[in-house]
């Protein structure tokens, strides 16, 4: 026991050369200068760019989903910058909501840019017949609610003149349900 204590005492009291850094002298000063410049200039720039990237995410999501209120969501993101980000969660939630009320009023859940993109696909010949039929149905629903804009009306007229799409798609037959008593034959009841 005394031998352990003595070796511990010698280890603690013995002068050992200890350094806090692997650099020394001028190399330590140079490294500290470069690190300070990095922290003072590059870190804030990266933080600001990261903050702005996260801040415009609701706008990008709304554009990707063709949300009919994407312009309002963009304005809310800009306003949120001036209010310290407090409005950002509202913009995020709004970008992910399904515009049910908008569909009831206008007959669609998509921004008008969506239909203009589909018109460009139709012009380039990239629009499938199923997509064209769905586009025609959407434009008809929109026309039933309110008059179409001139460019959307031209798209609807062009869809009506296509030979493969001149007929509306066949209606799906209704599902016929029978009462429960008609399903079980008369002699098999238990």
UniProtKB/TrEMBL annotation:
Keywords: Membrane, Signal, Transmembrane, Transmembrane helix. Residues 1-20 form the signal peptide. The keyword Amino-acid biosynthesis does not apply. The chain crosses the membrane at residues 34-54, 75-95. InterPro entries: UCP028770 (IPR011223). It holds the Pfam family DUF3302. It comes from the Bacteria. This is DUF3302 domain-containing protein. It comes from Ramlibacter agri. The lineage of its organism: Bacteria, Pseudomonadati, Pseudomonadota, Betaproteobacteria, Burkholderiales.
């Amino acid at each position: 026991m005394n031998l352990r204590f003595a070796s511990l005492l010698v280890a603690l009291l013995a002068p050992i050369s200890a350094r806090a850094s692997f650099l020394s002298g001028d190399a330590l000063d140079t490294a500290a200068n470069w690190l300070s410049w990095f922290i003072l200039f590059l870190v804030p720039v990266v933080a600001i760019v990261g903050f702005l990237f996260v801040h415009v995410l609701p706008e990008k999501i709304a554009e990707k989903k063709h949300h009919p209120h994407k312009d309002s969501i963009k304005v809310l993101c800009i306003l949120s910058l001036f209010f310290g980000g407090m409005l950002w969660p509202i913009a995020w939630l709004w970008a992910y909501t399904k515009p049910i009320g908008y569909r009831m009023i206008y007959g669609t859940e998509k921004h008008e840019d969506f239909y203009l993109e589909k018109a460009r696909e139709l012009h380039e010949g990239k629009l499938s017949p199923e997509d064209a039929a769905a586009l025609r149905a959407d434009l008809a629903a929109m026309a039933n609610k309110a008059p179409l804009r001139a460019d959307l009306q031209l798209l609807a007229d062009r869809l009506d003149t296509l030979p493969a799409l001149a007929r509306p798609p066949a209606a799906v037959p209704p599902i016929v349900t029978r009462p429960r008593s008609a399903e079980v034959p008369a002699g098999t009841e238990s």
